[in-house]
Design brief:
- The chain is mainly alpha-helical and about 80 residues long.
- Helix content is about 80%, strand content about 0%.
- Helix 2 runs antiparallel to helix 3.
Length: about 80
Amino acid sequence: MIALDSAITGFASTSGVTAIHLSLVIRSILCGLFLIWAAWNIYGHMKLVQDQHLDLYDLPMSILRILLLCAWIVLLIFVN
């Protein structure tokens, strides 16, 4: 445990950023990419309904699954 603390301290003093802040930046970027993917997926489902390849009654369930996955990812990323 002492070696880990010294490694984290060495990283922070060398890079000028703490490991916690770097982790938050990386998690925020990943969350943003995931939300862009989710928006693209919802748009694709809406286009499938418009092109009549997917039933209108299936659309809310598909969107609900995507939004639940988004909520789960946001909780995993930002809850310590």
